[in-house]
Amino acid sequence: MPNLYRDVLDSVPTAAVVVDKNLKVRYTNRAFREYFNSRKARGSLKEVISCGEPEGCGAGVKCAYCPMRGLFLDAAGRGGKAFRKLIVRGEKEDFALRIKVQPLGKFYLGIVDNAYETEIAREMYSAQDIQQRLLPPAKSGNGAAYSFMYVPCREIGGDLPDVYEADGETMGLIADVSGHGISAGMLSAFVKAGWDRGEPSPAAAIRGLNAKFQELNLDERSYVTAAAVRIDRARREIRYSVAGHNAPILLKSRLGIDEIVMNSPPISTWIPEFGYEDRAIGYEVGDVLVMLTDGIIESRNADGEQFSLERVEGVLQKSENAERFIERLKAALKEFCDTFDDDLTALAFDL
Questions:
Q1: What is the pTM of this model?
Q2: CB 174 within 8 A of CB 291
Q3: CA gyration radius for the chain?
Q4: Sheet holding 24-28, edge to edge
Q5: DSSP state at residue 136
Q6: Cα–Cα separations (whole angstroms), residue 80 to 9, 64, 282, 299, 344
Q7: Are β-strands 256-259 and 344-350 bridged in parallel, bridged antiparallel, or unpaired?
Q8: What is the mean pLDDT for each group of 10 consecutive residues in the chain (351 residues)?
């Protein structure tokens, strides 16, 4: 029977620790050991919470400031009950814990009542860090100069901007997956992994991604919209292809805005074998090419009014280059609506 109780306690996500009146740890469940990276299941507090104090537990200079030790000392002086919010130092971020202590016969039982939620927060932070690494470098290399903005509406976003080179030419990709949060983040990671960066044809890359998407066998609620471009500097030509996405916008230095129109379905199970094609448009030195997700256009203010494509184009016409456009677009969106219900992503190239 004791083994059964131990197995049950080890299976619950709530972290638990039992300490005696001499501050010796008599029991920890699996959640507690995993959470605190415990070297031992029982023993001194130092051994159980992986304390870095070189002296023995209670004998070091830092022991007087140990929050865990102080918590159980409080319990000893208050009839076995104590409550404290602790700050745990993580590798990249600090996390808050709520620990309650109550008497358990001759011992004290400590329960970390939000350990599960905090562990989820840690995992979410790691996922954010991974997603940030999927973004393109802040500065361009030898290809066309660019600037971008990426503002997820939740901890994990479903948009993906990317800039890279293929056959010596600059390639640009912007994708928007269905949904928000963790599921959207996983699907955007799939797009990053499934996109063929060695393919010089935007349409061929979209067709390849579409073929891989069909292998996922997802239902009709899941889809990916994408727009891809290849900037051919020798020919001063932009080759582009679109899958259910806002088509690129070209600010021509002499002629104003040129809205590129291309109707095609998203990458989905709706039309699984759609034949995406490339089209081309010329440009001149000094033009600015813009790609964005619908989260920007469809952002609404307190009155329910959309930011709109017209406002995007208005910002673009006042911008002399890609960097200034992104800066002004951020400012305009912030002024228009301070909170957002969708991810906001834009990518701009100096041609």
A1: 0.69
A2: yes
A3: 28
A4: 43-44, 24-28, 15-19, 107-112, 94-104, 82-89
A5: P
A6: 21, 20, 78, 54, 51
A7: unpaired
A8: 78 88 92 83 86 76 77 87 72 69 92 66 71 81 88 85 93 93 88 95 97 95 96 94 90 76 91 94 93 94 92 93 95 88 93 93
